[in-house]
Amino acid sequence: MDVEQVNWFTFASMDGKEHTILITGLSGALGKVVGGRLLNEGHRLLAIVRNESSENRTKADFPGMENRISFFRADLTTDTFEGLSTEDLSGFVHLAGGFDAAPTFAEAPADQLEKQFLLNTRSAFQLLRLVLPALKKRGGGSIVTISAKAALQPDGSNAAYAASKAALLNLTLQAAREGRKENVRANVIVPGVIDTPANRSWGSADQIAKWTTPEDIASCICWLMSDASAGVNGTVIPMYGQL
Which of 45, 197, 207, 223 has the most CB atoms in a 10 Å sphere around its CB? Predict the structure, then answer.
């Protein structure tokens, strides 16, 4: 798939530091909340989107703020993101991913593992190859990814999904170790079930009440992007709600 590089902005806060964050999954239910919080706190965003249609839909989700979001078009499952400018990045928030159910190994399609790794792991690996060296050269930055409870506490189902999220968790911890000397921090948030419209379509009221809200995750991400969390690196942060 062709990718297109666009010019994008950097934001200088009162502390003189640039705050431009690369983000995936901005158009998703979690992304809309996280993106809104980051924008409200003064960050600028560079969002990876699939195509022009996705870009236009995402702009519409942030009325009045769209001039502080720039876009890079790419397919997260196949591209290597050549042409993506990382020179002015101060952080990376990786929200993109997907879930494909399979109660047992026997019920899983033969290619499910590969597809789940494409959705949940490959893009993080490819982007970390670009972002981590840039943040190290810059002298610091913050990386946050989203794993899943199943990566830490397998429940006997959805093995391919759990494996892909466990791999994502490990990539994040590896990035934390590699970037430590250059003040690059990498942390991974591990939700149980996130309270989104898609999940509400199958959850009961009692189940939904126990889930993790996007707002809580957004608060944690904004804190991890800030200097207030300067001492937090290589941390797995469980956000299971009441599960």
Answer: 45
Flag whether the pTM goes above 0.85: yes
**Domain assignment present for 15:** no
Contacts of 182 (CB under 8 A, 6+ apart): 135, 136, 137, 139, 140
Q: Kindly state whether residue 133 falls inside one of the protein's structural domains.
A: yes
Q: What is the pLDDT of residues 14-44, one digit of tens each?
A: 345 557 999 999 999 999 999 999 999 999 9
Structural domains of the chain, count: 1
230: domain CATH number? 3.40.50.720
Nearest Cα to Cα of residue 143 among 229, 75, 30: 229
CA distance 9 to 45: 8
pLDDT tens digits for 158-214? 999 999 999 999 999 999 999 999 999 999 999 999 999 999 999 999 999 999 999
